[in-house]
Specification:
The complex is a heterodimer of chains A (530) and B (340). With 530 residues, chain A is an alpha+beta fold. Chain A is built from 19 helices and 21 strands. The chains are: A alpha+beta (530), B alpha/beta (340). Chain B: It comes from Gelidibacter salicanalis.
Amino acid sequence: MKHFSDLISAIEITNKTNAKIDALVDYLKIAPEKDKLWLITLFTGKRPPRPVKTTLMRQWCLEITGLPEWLFLESYSSVGDLGETIALMLPDPTHHIDKTLSDWMTELKALKPKSDAEKKAYVLHAWSGLQMQERLIFNKLIGGSFRIGVSKKTLVNALSKYSGIDANQLMHSIIGHWDMDTISFDDLVNGEHINYDNSKPYPFCLAYSLEKELSELGQPEEWQVEYKWDGIRGQIVKRNDEIFIWSRGEELVTSQFPELVTILQNFKEDFVIDGEILALKDNAVLLFNDLQKRLNRKNISKKMLEEVPVGFYVYDILEWNGDDIRTQPLQYRRQLLEQLLSSNSAHDTLVISEIIEFTDWNELDAIRNRAREFNSEGLMLKQKNSPYHTGRKKGDWWKWKVDPLTIDAVMIYAQKGSGRRSSKYTDYTFAVKKDDGLVTVAKAYSGLTDKEITEISRFVNKNAIEKFGPVRTVKPELVFEIAFEGIAFSNRHKSGVALRFPRILKWRRDKSVEEIDTIEQVKLLITNPI
Amino acid sequence: MKLIKFTKKGIYCIPGKFYLDPWLPVDHAIISHGHADHARRGNKFYLCQTDSKAILKHRLGADIHVESLNYNEPRMINGVEVSFFPAGHVIGSAQIRLEYKGFVVVFTGDYKVKNDYITVPFEPIKCHEFITESTFGLPIYNWLSEAQLQQQMHDWVQRNQAHNRTSVFLGYSLGKAQRLMKLMEGVDKMFVHSAIHNLNTAIQDSGIPLPETELLIYDFKKEDVQNRIVILPPGLLGSKLIKKIPNAATAICSGWMQIRGNRRWQAVDAGFAVSDHADWNGLLSAVKATEAEKVYVTHGSQATFSKYLNEIGIPSAEVKTEYGTEEEEVELITDKTSSQ
């Protein structure tokens, strides 16, 4: 496992995608055939089910080290990863086991139906025969994410660099149906088991943020204006009765959205359409937070399908019965799209993106600012004559987002992050004034630089009240400007309000806690009380 | 017997009328070692171990009033016998042993129990009361042997050279830098930053030999440094100087690098868990070897370590001091020792 262990070490230390890709390529050059297949399996979420429960692993670690459970938990909250905590706490190895990645995986797969006693004997033998880093990897092979920033896309780019094969084709190959026991690595990457002609996507056309006055865009009638949605930009490819859904990150996400596939199967035509995957319920768009519940799941339960149904707002059509129509003007493509959707029964799942009627540029600003009321992020402005560009090109398509709402709040709790952020306090809870005290309004964890996080962590260490556990109550002193996309009354929150997508905009070092907002001021921001 | 008292200014010896590593200015300070959180400015009189004297003068000013003692060379101060014993932390670091009417208190300052082959190794001392640090007082901190660590680092340099890269190690100027020099001795030519170079000169001038290094001058020639080894204080991470080093592969050297999240926190190419503090088992073995009836735990994981000692039957209490911080981030972010 030495090579695999070196690979993980090389990948985990760098935050540069290219360095990760180079490390993967180096590994692919020397790894045995079966190990390469396992590598793909592990990093595409196709790993076998966990053979040993974490509670058992934790219990065995405590037995071996003789340490109390509270100390284990204290250590865990410092490390932020269970497999790593165990690997660090175990005593030095007494012997050295050298097995290939595929040997380990085969054994772990076979371990699943065994008794707890047999599992224990196996795991303990492995633990005492592996160095720290190898032990960590072994624990990760049993289950859990490596959390080293290797997405399917990174893996595919590495495979592409190694093999010279087109990355999107490789994406289809590794996502497609294949069985480790019957396919060779070469056949897999060459796509012997798939027909790439059926799935091949087009590059997405992307928009820049509006950077000029509307009047400079020309006549209003030259523009098609639509709402901008905050979901997952997607491309649906339907050719020869096969259906593929690509995300903007060039990952194949077809299996995550079965309801879309079902609807698409009713269509007779072949086409490629561009749009937004959204959580849609009763004809309304739900929050991205809701959509998130549906993402990256191995199995989507019936309950989940009912609670967060997914739909697709269609923006554009790129291919029609085999013809690439991207160079045709938007106006023409839109007509075709309307035809396609009106002649098929797509229910409420496949919905054409509404065109906003307006005659004067001055009307648009008010429309944009109302967008928040139904969970839209703002507007998209598209030149009616524009082709479907490859990538980001200035001039024809603009996005024009709503301005975020902001408040000043004070930090009252801090919690350590996970993965790369496990060493620092990165997750904060903020409060505003209520009567003579404070009331929690938001939790946020993004928007600060590493340097600021380090500084805040030092403040937390100095000013924390608790000594144990992951959460620290801190002196209300640090003031932050919190931005959010929406606000509504809420009975579930103590403050009586719920913020949508709160994030830290700025650390207001210039403000003291006396200057933060009151809950009354925050409630005034609610424009559409329900 | 009450020999010591924890005060706002620092650890105070009642009959001796002096302070140990005070953080506010006092008349009479006994200093465990030269790091800035232990040896502070503004004291009227300093007493330290012989090898620390040149370091203190270098950092606090040549005009300070300082005297020194060798290891295990007792001096009576107001009826208290004061002596220094090796702490194995950095060059000149000492545990301070106080004896008064047969009652013994030992203050460790900072220490590590394993031999780094450049610092006089740690020596356990029996005492009634033991004041220990706890920087790495969690069972997840267990260091590799010096030989294993050296192998890892040598392999890294070799891999860098195979890819035409210059190996840059970051470690604070006093202690870590000399340790890295020792670990890398004989591998290739080593360049050091002026902050480290000046300290090295002070150490060598007081008669302590160090591995051979060359000063990294500001306008160095790229071809001289290419593929070699460079040792810099951690504060230089992201600096202009480090960007000038051709094809630099950068490694942070600190005990905190034991944890993946810490290694990945800063955009560097490697992290080596090289620490001048005792690891979990080191702390436990040191505490047990003293056979102390009471253990005071200072800076680090004091709450956790102290609670654990009580659970295993060693009476213990935590003490708030101004040494380090819980996370000891100072070491990672700014080179506190060269920020003077």
